[in-house]
Design brief:
Blueprint: H1 8-15, E1 25-28, H2 54-57, H3 62-66, E2 82-88, H4 106-109, E3 128-130, H5 150-159, E4 176-182, H6 195-207, E5 212-215, H7 224-234, E6 244-248, E7 268-274, E8 291-296, E9 300-303, E10 309-313, H8 316-331, H9 341-350, H10 388-391, H11 395-398
Parallel strand pairs: 2-4, 2-5, 3-4, 5-6, 6-7, 7-8
Antiparallel strand pairs: 1-10, 9-10
Helix pairs in contact: 5-8, 6-7
The chain binds calcium ion (3 copies).
Length: 401
Amino acid sequence: MQWRGYSARLCLAILGSATAPVVAQETSGFPCQPLVCSTLLPATPVDDPKTNDCAYHAGNLWWVDYVAGSLAWSAHERAKPVTVAVFDDGAWIDHEDLRNKLWTNEAEAHGQAGVDDDGNGYVDDLHGWDFVDNSPDVSPKGACRDRVSHGTLMASLVAAERNNHVGIAAPGSDGARVMIVRMVGCDGDTTKVDPARLVRALEYATRMGARILSFSAHWSVTTPELDAAFREIADRPGSPVAAIVVASVPNKGEPVAGYPAAYDFRRIVRAIPIGNDDEISPGTSPAPPGLNLGSPSACVIGAGRPPAQYRLEQGSSNSTAILAGLLAGIWSSPRYAKFSPDEFLAGVVEGRMSKTARHSKPGSRPPYLEGVPLADACVLATEHRSASVCRQPEAHREARP
Ligand SMILES: [Ca+2]
Ligand SMILES: [Ca+2]
Ligand SMILES: [Ca+2]
């Protein structure tokens, strides 16, 4: 089974199926000026003028305001961030916008090198684990070292550090911490899903406290063991390893969404890719009914090579990571922090976010004829703190019945 979306080649193919012309480019240091596709969007006043990350003020973080990301920023009143496990090709954790936003295994951080200080079966697992090479070093390896690290980009879209004067600021900056789970490599067979490896990784992530699992990839066949692992995490009531699985819905014209989006499990939230024109990306696969939320895909800037490179990208992967970070930012707020995964899904994601009047433009094909609800943090809006998308009804929003 192929882990789609993870080799640089496949990733670039995904990036090519967008809603607007775009130039993927890598920049050394952030230039603090609009990049190519971001000029499609007006650099209007930002929702949080106090935030000092230069991409925000250069008008390159449209997607943050699109999901009311500033409402999920409230570090001073936040008890504990939500751990988001990013299942991908590893990540460059020394990147300037990532290094302070990592989940950390405290027992290993204060333990001895070469010793499994917390007895979880993994020696020196500080920020996650490399399940491909069975190593605590979660950095990209093989061909990924010299190419795009998909996982680095994803981790930054979940939780890139806000207010550090550089780069970007993800909606999950204050509320999410990223656990790096290296599941695939870039060479030969390592690009394929190994079901047994994935089962071990799922067990690790949930046991170590990940409450959101982010899958910016999909695969077409599965096994009974993998199904059972996902069912325990994403479906069984009362499961001690219950977590929310945020699953990508691909936009390359695939006839079906693939796993894990294809699972009919209660704790699966699917990210529907939305362009900066409010439309569902062309070629988006039909998503099964359930918790399906639109999330930005095009013209998104995230982390590239360390220590300070950034990339302008688009694709359904982006939507997934942004949604995962956004959910963490909302979930970790004082109002919802004590909610179980099922309570959070029922009360917030299904009860509020899915019921929003804010929708993508009506689509031209099933199951998107009426568009999809757009993910945002407006559930956190108060009379004192608001965001532009929570205040301004869109034309297509008013047109809805
Ligand atoms: Ca350990
Ligand atoms: Ca150790
Ligand atoms: Ca930053």
